[in-house]
Specification:
The chain is of the alpha/beta class. It has 23 helices and 19 strands.
């Protein structure tokens, strides 16, 4: 059984590598600073218990310390590895010189010393080093005698992060040549989230561009259409690393992990895509990258949050990908293309930048359903699929979903509608009632069994449209919570919100927490202030600082005002489907037609419009009873 020593196992790349190793048989030795924190972080990666967890041993240490900071027993344990995967080091392009040298150069020297001892004692099968696509070091220019600790002119003028990382590349290559063990250098381009969700927790890469575009800090295209930022999906990168680690007789080599320049978006196309997904104006014109880097070095980089070092990832070069393409062909994997994934990536990064530090609720996973992001809780039987309404998102319905799951045991899917939460805006056309229903229909098509569709507020109107369309046969039950069946009375604020996307979006983004809270209480969104969950209004207002989410809400308001009648109307309910209507009688803005009130499946509750959020347990109980 193979033994793998892995550095960086809790990082963005390392976690995906472990996820792909979860179903294997290798014993995994993980060099970590804190075994307790590492165990907690990896519990969601398939190593929470059972046989997978038994294959892991945490070695408490530090790359920058002699003998990797390991105690003698753990160092002897590390000497039993026959494959080393070195993916350690922070993604922090603004590291100072001293820290960058300790982290990358000293760390690689200590790891190379371990590799030498393993190879002399029993033979090291493979050393895999994860570096970066801008490294100037390659198989043909390694000087075995160069002293990497005295190469002061190496990449002079570049940032310490790049310099030390690439000097570490040279050092590892030197040691492999001197001692004769196989070495594979994997050079990833800028790494984005794994397909199909595109979840990109590392916001220091492409996230810097997303931040700049959404804040209007990049009015021009760096380098113009002749330049590009090569990108690679995390799962594709990890797949190559895992494949190399499992090779019985590795040949070694350099693998540049990026697609061909002509196959991906150029810099202008990439920024246009980001701007389109964020609903902001795209940069116009172009300036040389060197000029922009000089401007950022004056201190503007610190003020704008765009480090001058980040522009080093924008290049005009093409890269040799022949070796990589041959390897991917042998693996039977797909070519390294990320264009189709980018809308999900941008939406996810935008959400993370809007809500820094937001974490997944326990027992839930982020998935993709159709073109929508979803929070999923596993269970048995028909899934509950919950569709939110205006000023909401999937995360707001976790308490309701938890109660539903506890009482029924069924799976629960919480969908983010287009442009909300972590879902991208619609790829074609403006949002409409029909387009929302189509997106939900494509999401539930992923279910192998019928689903229990639940919609709240305008989401209930979308659920009803879905049920009356071609996807209706996919439903087992339909529940409409406070369905919005008419547009509200028009006041000054509502007139602003019902205008163009730009005016409505601007009005939403300018709302304060106090104004939002007062509006909710005045309109019966909540019946009393004590019903508003802690932090709920603050989270909504923070969400609206995202131009994408503000535009999505503006689009929904546009649909509400332009598509719904002025007075309560009774849409046709699907006759072949059991339908439940739950109505909060303290709503001061919307009304329920009498025809609905008299139906057997209607339940009246003495709450405000947002009762699924304020009273999740009661709502879940009623839903479970109606099935």
């Amino acid at each position: 059984m193979s033994e793998l020593l892995i550095t960086g196992s809790t990082g963005f790349i390392g976690k995906q590598v472990l996820k792909q190793l979860a179903q294997g048989e290798e014993r995994l030795l993980l060099l970590v600073r804190s075994p307790e924190k590492a165990a907690a972080a990896l519990s969601k990666q398939g190593f929470g218990g059972g046989d997978a967890a038994k294959r892991i041993q945490f070695l408490k240490g530090d790359l920058s310390e002699p003998n990797l900071g390991l105690n003698p027993a753990d160092y002897n344990r590390a000497l039993q590895a026959d494959v080393i995967i070195h993916a350690g080091g922070p993604m922090s392009i603004t590291l100072d010189n001293a820290k960058a040298q300790r982290t990358f150069l000293e760390g690689s020297r200590h790891l190379a010393e371990l590799a030498e001892r393993i190879h002399k004692a029993r033979g090291l099968r493979h050393f895999i080093h994860v570096v970066g696509y801008m490294s100037p070091i390659h198989d043909g220019n390694v000087d075995p005698e160069a002293d990497v600790f005295r190469m002061d002119d190496f990449m002079k003028g570049e940032g310490p992060y790049e310099r030390m990382k690439f000097l570490a590349d040279l050092l590892i290559r030197q040691q492999a040549l001197r001692h004769g063990y196989p070495l594979s250098v994997v050079n990833p381009s800028t790494v984005v989230g794994a397909s199909p969700t595109g979840a990109t927790e590392q916001t220091g890469g492409l996230g810097i561009l997303v931040h700049a575009v959404r804040k209007g800090l990049m009015p021009v295209v760096p380098g113009g259409a002749s330049h590009w930022v090569p990108l690679v999906a995390n799962d594709a990168l990890a797949g190559v690393i895992v494949h190399l680690a499992r090779e019985a007789k590795p040949e070694g080599g350099t693998y540049n992990m990026l697609g061909r320049k002509e196959a991906g978006p150029n810099m202008k196309e990439l920024l246009d895509l980001i701007a389109r997904e964020l609903a902001v104006p795209a940069p116009r014109g172009a300036l040389p990258v060197s000029l922009l880097r000089g401007v950022m070095k004056t201190g503007l980089g610190r003020l704008t949050g765009i480090p001058a070092e980040s522009l080093a990832f924008i290049t005009e070069r093409s890269f040799d990908t022949k070796t990589t393409e041959k390897l991917i062909g042998r693996m039977g994997a797909k070519p390294l293309a990320v264009t189709e994934l980018l809308p999900m990536v941008v939406a996810d990064l935008d959400y993370r930048l809007t809500h820094p530090g937001a974490s997944e609720p326990a027992h839930w996973s982020r998935e993709r359903k159709g073109d929508l992001a979803a929070l999923v809780r596993e269970g048995l039987g028909e899934p509950w699929v919950i569709v939110h309404g205006l000023l909401s998102g999937a995360d707001d319905f976790v308490p309701l979903a938890e109660h539903l799951h506890a009482s029924t045991g069924n799976p629960v899917w919480l969908l983010d509608l287009p442009g909300f939460g972590r879902s991208p805006l619609l790829r074609e056309g403006r949002h409409s009632l029909e387009s929302y229903a189509k997106a939900v229909s494509e999401a539930i098509a992923d279910s192998p069994v019928p689903v229990r569709l639940v919609g709240h507020s305008f989401g209930a109107r979308i659920a009803l449209e879905t049920a009356n369309g071609p996807a209706g046969g996919k439903l087992s039950t339909l529940a409409l919570l406070q369905p919005v069946l008419h547009r509200p009375d028009v006041g000054a604020l509502r007139r602003a919100l019902s205008g163009t996307r730009r005016t409505a979006s601007a009005a939403l983004r300018l709302m304060s927490v106090r104004a939002m809270r007062n509006t909710m209480l005045r309109e019966g969104v909540f019946a009393a202030e004590e019903e508003i969950p802690d932090g709920y209004v603050e989270t909504i207002v923070r969400s609206l600082t995202s131009p994408r989410i503000a535009a999505a809400n503006a689009d929904m308001l546009h649909s509400l005002y332009r598509k719904l009648p002025a007075k309560p109307a009774m849409p046709v309910l699907p006759t072949s489907l059991h339908t439940t209507v739950i109505w909060g009688t303290k709503d001061r803005t919307y009304a329920l037609p009498e025809a609905y009130r008299n139906q057997a499946g209607t339940r009246l509750v003495s709450y405000g419009h947002q009762f699924p959020v304020s009273h999740p347990a009661v709502t879940a109980k009623i839903l479970a009873e109606q099935v």
